[in-house]
C-alpha cells in the first residue's frame, strides 16, 4: 500500500502512492468490510477496488503503529484518528445504492432465477 515516510515515536506516517493497485485478497477483504458478499455479488466488486484506490481526503494520512503493525488513519489538520478509512461510510452507502439500482432493473431477480435453475439441474 505505502512505504515509510516519517517516524514519530512508535508511529510511522506512511507515504501514499498514486500508482497503488490493491491485490485480489485486499479487494476481497475490503468488499466484506463495506458489506459486499464477494461470492454472491461479484458485480459489486468494482466498488471495493475503487474504494481501496480512492485518495484520502485532504489532511488524512495512513499511519502504522510499529509495536503491533496496526494501520490507522490520522487527520493532521484536526487531530482526528480512525481505524476505518475516512471514505468507508461513503462506499457502504454506494453499495446500498448500487443494490437498489440493480433491484430496480431486475438484475438480482435474473440472478436468483439462474441460481434456482442451476440448483434444480444439480438435484436431478
Describe the structure in your own words.
The chain has 124 residues and is α+β, with helices and mostly antiparallel strands. It has one domain (3-123). Helices cover 43% and strands 19% of the residues. The chain is built from 4 helices and 5 strands, in the order ββααβββαα. The chain has helices at residues 24-33, 45-53, 88-104, 107-123, and strands spanning 3-8, 11-15, 60-65, 71-75, 81-82. A 5-stranded antiparallel β-sheet has the order 1-2-3-4-5, with no helix packed on it. A hairpin with a 5-residue loop joins strand 3 and strand 4 (71-75). Helix 1 (24-33) packs across helix 2 (45-53). The radius of gyration is 19 Å and the shape is elongated. One of its GO terms (cellular component) is ciliary transition fiber. It holds the Pfam family WW. Residues 54-88 form the WW domain.
Please bin the fraction of helical residues. 40-55%
User: What structural class do the secondary elements suggest?
Assistant: alpha+beta
CA gyration radius, whole angstroms? 19 Å
Separation, N- and C-terminal Cα atoms: 48 Å
Total domain count:
1
Instruction: Tell me how many strands there are.
Output: 5
H/E topology pattern: EEHHEEEHH
Strand content is 15-25%
Largest sheet: 5 strands, antiparallel
List unreliable stretches of 5+ residues. Answer: none
* Number of helical segments with 4 or more residues: 4
Mean pLDDT: 85
Strand order in the sheet with the most strands: 1-2-3-4-5
Globally, the shape reads: elongated
Amino acid at each position: 500500500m505505502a512505504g515509510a515516510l516519517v517516524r514519530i515515536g512508535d508511529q510511522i506516517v506512511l507515504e501514499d502512492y498514486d500508482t497503488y493497485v490493491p491485490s485480489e485478497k485486499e479487494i476481497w477483504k475490503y468488499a466484506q468490510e463495506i458489506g459486499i458478499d464477494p461470492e454472491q455479488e461479484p458485480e459489486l466488486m468494482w466498488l471495493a477496488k475503487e474504494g481501496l484506490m480512492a485518495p484520502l481526503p485532504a489532511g488524512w494520512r495512513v499511519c502504522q503503529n510499529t509495536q503491533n503493525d496496526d494501520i490507522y488513519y490520522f487527520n493532521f489538520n484536526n487531530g482526528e484518528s480512525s481505524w476505518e478509512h475516512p471514505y468507508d461510510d461513503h462506499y457502504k452507502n454506494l453499495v446500498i445504492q448500487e443494490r437498489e439500482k440493480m433491484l430496480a432493473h431486475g438484475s438480482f431477480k435474473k440472478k436468483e432465477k439462474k441460481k434456482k435453475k442451476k440448483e434444480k439441474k444439480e438435484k436431478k
